[in-house]
Amino acid sequence: MTEPFERIAVVGLGLIGGSLLQGLAHGGHSVVGVDVDPATIAAAVHSGAEVAGDTATAVRGADLVVLAVPLPDLPDAIRSVAPHLGPKAILTDVGTLKSPVHALVRELAPGAQFIGGHPLAGTEHSGWGAADPLMFRDAPWALTLESDADLEAWLRLASLICNLGARPVPTSAAEQDTAVARVIGLPHVLAEVLALAGLAGGALGLSLAAGSYTSGSRVARTRPELVATWCDGNPGLVRALDDVIERLTATRAELTAGGSVLPLARAGYDARIGWEQRAFEPVELPARTTDLLAHGASGGWITAVLVGSSGAARLLGMRPSAA
Amino acid sequence: MTEPFERIAVVGLGLIGGSLLQGLAHGGHSVVGVDVDPATIAAAVHSGAEVAGDTATAVRGADLVVLAVPLPDLPDAIRSVAPHLGPKAILTDVGTLKSPVHALVRELAPGAQFIGGHPLAGTEHSGWGAADPLMFRDAPWALTLESDADLEAWLRLASLICNLGARPVPTSAAEQDTAVARVIGLPHVLAEVLALAGLAGGALGLSLAAGSYTSGSRVARTRPELVATWCDGNPGLVRALDDVIERLTATRAELTAGGSVLPLARAGYDARIGWEQRAFEPVELPARTTDLLAHGASGGWITAVLVGSSGAARLLGMRPSAA
Questions:
Q1: What's the pLDDT at B123?
Q2: Which member of A212, A232, A271 has the closest CB to residue B261?
Q3: I need a surface site. Which of A160, A287, B121, B155 has the fewest CB within 10 A?
Q4: Bridge partner residues of B316 (DSSP)
Q5: Interface test with A, best of B169, B172, B192 (most A CBs within 10 A)
Q6: How many CB pairs under 8 A join A and B?
Q7: CA-to-CA distance for A276 and A271, rounded, in angstroms?
Q8: What would the DSSP string read from start to end of B211-248?
Q9: Which of B221, B258, B296 sits opposite A272 (nearest CB)?
Q10: Chain A: residue whose CA lies nearest to B188
């Protein structure tokens, strides 16, 4: 095993931060939370969590600091954390897009050892009251590994995430944001547009709307401010939109020429069913940045970080099986 | 009440036809089914349904004939039914698009009294084995009422559909197809395109795909041949695609200019929440084609068809409440 963290600070005790605090505490880790909202603090203390009175107290002495605040609040959080970070402390976060956070940390806490994190977990609810210590079980968790990163620090954090039952996915900030554009940003934009296109069709259509409209527009129920933080400033989303506009334009042309959507529907069916039926197989990996990034890019994740008696680490993981 | 049907024939005993046969039988109607598939016939007979040996036997003597076969099989079904239709028999169907069926009936059974029907019900499964007599409870059921239609025939069929617990929606074939383009055709095309755009992003994205991708691409699991029958040949879908392409192009421009998806997300959120929270109020309607069509276009449906001692019919219904 890698060297465990002695003291973990979680800054922000909403749905994700609260779940993380509870999950880490249940895993036997020493963890302290902090939040700016008095009601959240009271609820956390009431449920037995250790909560610090201010950020400085929480961060001082922590060897891992997790930023779990919404993106608009992140600059202030970084500024309040930075002066109190120990020289060996690792800083991470839980936001959807990683490049903007890397840029903020470079600007506001240039000395910090930062590893970006993005757990793919959550519910429709928010706040400490909806937190769940088991929220991260089997959840993918993108963990940025830049080519110049400190691999040992990354392995320690990956090991902690494995202990939460989640699936650390090694990736660069840029690659994760490009990937997320297609599977988070794009589905949200399409849901918003579908909800609006349905409404624009008038009341008759809204009365005839059935399961396909319901599921297709479901995530338009998400708080708009959150959707914006998942979409804005991500060049990958522009490319994903170009892809979609091109496919829709081709479909339109096919229909106006008296053709059929059948080829599109067959390809879409194969894509969806293929995704559902992906199979995975165990793999052992060397603790080498290039190998780990290739593993993440191939759809794999880490299940355990092992350190032998020689001190050399090796990793166990899962990767998609060859079909 | 309107004059009830004495004998109903259901041609095709798949998911919808089977559910209809069972639902009508449970409602005390005299109903006979027919199917071309021996296994379906055996299963229907085994469960106590009345099944005819051939279409002629089923249709002769029926005053309502329901075509419940897939669109590609409809021309053959119309040809086999037409010679046996009594002079007062009403012919209806259960397909998604109504204009193509009206055109087929005009061509292949020009003397038939045809009213197009489209129950918004179903499951992911198919066939007699998945049939459910309660499938149509609270389901909208588009029922075409052309300006030159026989209103009395329409009222008899609407009354029967009310007895099934469903919600007849008066509409013209053209208007229903335009409406369905946006709430059935479009969500399917978008789901196919999302499934493909996700796949095109590579394995990393497929491993990070979460709830929004799952629900957004859900109906890409539908049999491609069905999707094609719901989309092809519907000019309304081309206009819906134009609408969507325009919205996506504007979103792309906003993003490349450093803008935000926030206005789109707010509008989409309002559209979706507004749709979920629609409220309805009871209304009484005269039995007049123009009033009924206006009622359907406004998002209303019929709940009962009443005939007074004078013989004049009036209708009860529900319509969206003024906000």
A1: 76
A2: A232
A3: A287
A4: B284, B304
A5: B192
A6: 365
A7: 9
A8: HHHHHHTGGGGS-HHHHHHHHTT-HHHHHHHHHHHHHH
A9: B221
A10: A212
What does the angle CA B186 – CA B192 – CA B197 come to, to the nearest 5 degrees?
A: 120
Contacts of A266 in chain B (CB under 8 A): 224
Q: Tell whether B214 and B146 lie within a shared domain.
A: no
Residue B204 lies in a domain: yes
CB contact under 8 A, B187 and A193: no
Query: In chain A, what residues touch B120 (CB-CB under 8 Å)?
Result: 208, 210
ipTM: 0.94
The reply to whether B231 and B150 lie within a common domain is no
Close Cβ partners of A22 (under 8 Å, ≥ 6 residues apart): A49, A131, A132, A133
Query: Between B184, B192, B248, which is nearest A268 by CB?
Result: B192
Name every residue whose Cβ is closer than 8 Å to that of residue B322 and which is 6 or more positions away in sequence: none
Partner-chain contact A201 B224, CB within 8 Å: no
A205: Cβ–Cβ under 8 A, 6 or more apart, which residues? A198, B178, B179, B180, B182, B183
pLDDT at residue A148, as a whole number: 80
Domain boundary pick from A153, A171, A189: A171
Please report residues of B whose CB lies closer than 8 A to that of A234.
255
Q: Which whole-number Å values give the CA distances from B81 to A178, B18, B25, B33, B66, in the listed order?
A: 56, 18, 21, 13, 10
Structural tokens at position B314:
């009036």
Residues B127 and B105 in one domain: yes
Token digits for A245?
């506009």
Residues of A in contact with B296 (CB under 8 A): 204, 207
At A182, which amino acid appears? R
Domain count, chain A: 2
CA dihedral A23, A24, A30, A34 (to 10 degrees): -70
DSSP A114: E
What's the longest Cα–Cα distance across chain A? 71
- Asked which of B171, B202, B236 is the last residue of a domain, the reply is B171
Compute mean pLDDT per 10 residues along chain B, 323 residues long, and list them.
88 97 96 97 95 96 96 96 96 97 97 96 86 95 92 96 97 98 98 97 94 96 95 97 98 98 98 96 96 97 90 91 80
CATH number at residue B119: 3.40.50.720
Please indicate, yes or no, whether residues A191 and A133 belong to a single structural domain of this protein. Answer: no
CB A298 within 8 A of CB A288: no
Residue of chain B whose alpha carbon sits nearest to that of A180: B205
Cα of A310 to nearest chain B Cα, Å: 32
DSSP B42-81: HHHHHTT--B-SSHHHHHTT-SEEEE-S-GGGHHHHHHHH
Domain limits for position A205: 177-259
